[in-house]
Amino acid sequence: MSRVVYFDLETSGLSDRAEILQIGAYDPDTNDAFERYILPKKDIPPGTTQHNGFELINGQLYQNGDYRSTVGLKSALIDFWDYLNDLPGGAVTLTGHNIFNFDCRYLFRGIKSCNLVGPFSSVIEGFSDTLPLFREHLPYLANHKLGYIHEEIVGGGFLEHDAVCDCIALSTIFDETGLEDYISDHAESFDDLLQEDNARIATKQRLSTMTELMNHGVSYNMLRRMAEAGLTMSKLRSIWYNEGGCSGLEDYLSEIMDNGKPRVTSHPYSLGIILDAVSHFV
C-alpha cells in the first residue's frame, strides 16, 4: 500500500448542499501537517456551530470564537494537491475516520466542481476508512467515535472537530495500537470510490423523479432500490405503456438478474404497492 496520510474535513452541515469549511491532513512520517480554511457562500446553521464551532460573523469565518483566515475552495484544493504532490514516495492513501460515508463525498464534489479530478487522481492512490477497522480490531469499546477511541486508547482529550487535530489524534491511536498494517484491508482505490460517488449521485437524481410514489405507499428504501436499478418515473411510464401495462411492469421489477436476485423485488405485497402507486401516474 502507498504512503498513509491522515485526512479530515469539516463542513457546514451533513446535507449534499453543505460546504467544506476546513481541510486538514497530517503525514506521520514527516510530521508535516496541512490546513486550509474556506469561506462558505451560505450561512452556517446554528446546529453546525454547536457541533464543530464554526460560524460566520460579518462575513468572516470563526472557529470557537477565533478568527480564521480563509481562501476560496479551488485555491484550498490546489494547495492541498501541492501538499500531497510534494510529499516523498509518490501517490498516497488518504486515511480518515468515517471518510467513506462523509469526507470523501465532499472532497469528490469539490474536486469535480473545480475540474481537478485528473490532478488529484495522480497524487491519491486510494482512501482507507478507519471506522470499520476499529470496529473489527477494537470490538470491546463501547462505541467507535474518534474522541472516545482516543480517550480510551491514548488518554486525555483533544480539540475534536478540528480537521488537523482529528488527523493527529487518529495518528496517535495507530501509534498506540500498532494497527497500521490493517489500513490496507479497508482501502479502496481513487477510481473505484469516484465511480461509487458518481453512481450515488445518479441514483439520487433518479430517485428524486419518483418521490410522488411515496404519497401512495411506496417506502423510501424501496424507491432507493428502484433508483439503483436505473428506474425513473419516465421509465416506469414507458415500461407500463410499452411492455403490457401492470403485468409488464411487474415482470420487469421481479426479473431475476445474473446475481440471482430480483431486479427490484419479487415480494407480492411490495409489488402490489408499487404497481398501485404507478397506476396513478399513467
From TrEMBL:
Its cofactor is Mg(2+). InterPro entries: Exu_RNase_H-like, Ribonucl_H, RNaseH-like_sf, RNaseH_sf, TREX1/2. GO terms for biological process: DNA catabolic process. GO terms for cellular component: cytoplasm. CDD domains: DEDDh. The keyword S-adenosyl-L-methionine does not apply. The keyword Phosphoprotein does not apply. One of its GO terms (molecular function) is nucleic acid binding. Keywords: Exonuclease, Hydrolase, Magnesium, Metal-binding, Nuclease. Residues 3-188 form the Exonuclease domain. Belongs to the exonuclease superfamily. TREX family. This is Exonuclease domain-containing protein. It comes from Bemisia tabaci.
